């Protein structure tokens, strides 16, 4: 492994011209790599102002990159030039995340302590290839409840993580209650409520609580809740693109949808049109995601927010948006993983 890494690092310093065979996906791959490198350039230059949101997106991206590297190493058709760029990205990303951690902690120690497990290591998620049928999507009615109770939701996440306190005592990890399950499975939800319901069933897997929670859930497993939610979320994403493009104010949510369902293997979210569309979203000069209009859609919602803190936007260097840029980074790494599997 060490020698392989060394060879790769050496290789990165050598011009890569002509080493990539031309395949149908090459340009999409190249564009995804360029966009990911551009975003990482931005984050690595401004790591001291990355917040929890931004770091979460970077950690999901890190997991996707590591998966992409695993796939590429085992695949004879995956060119060395791609493997070396993926590896260089992963190395630089690891450093950026480590450097950002103390700043994130300093910004909000209590919050950091509670949610540390979601940002202190790469997210490795099981990618189970799933395609939704037309009937499944057809049968969904988009819900109306878009108000997320952040405090209640945070408590449910903390119960899973083992950081929830009751009467001055921490209760054991992987704790679930009926109230939490009801909240996270309630029907008729939309927008950030659906994505945060899904996130609950994702966090649970990444912190290895799946089995314990399934004992509590009875006959319906975690994967089936994930599927129901991604079917809903897909229908919402389709609606968001129905005008041929996604409205400026909807881009953040759109990326969150693609990232959360895509990393679970819901490949409907990884259609070429959507990949191409989102790759055009970053600012061409800075590589990051910025509000297109000056009057930010986020002003006013940051303090008294209905949403989990994970959604709180923060402006970084050059007017870049931390949450959207972090989600964008994770999403582009997901594309790299997906494209590597199909190379
Ligand atoms: C979760 O914690 C509550 C206390 O808040 C406890 O009564 C309950 O038994 C725990 N549930 C599980 C499944 O561990």
TrEMBL record:
<keyword id="KW-0732">Signal</keyword>
<protein>
    <submittedName>
        <fullName>UPF0764 protein C16orf89-like</fullName>
    </submittedName>
</protein>
<dbReference type="Pfam" id="PF15882">
    <property type="entry name" value="DUF4735"/>
</dbReference>
<dbReference type="GO" id="GO:0005829">
    <property type="term" value="C:cytosol"/>
</dbReference>
<feature type="signal peptide">
    <location>
        <begin position="1"/>
        <end position="19"/>
    </location>
</feature>
<dbReference type="InterPro" id="IPR031751">
    <property type="entry name" value="DUF4735"/>
</dbReference>
<dbReference type="GO" id="GO:0016020">
    <property type="term" value="C:membrane"/>
</dbReference>
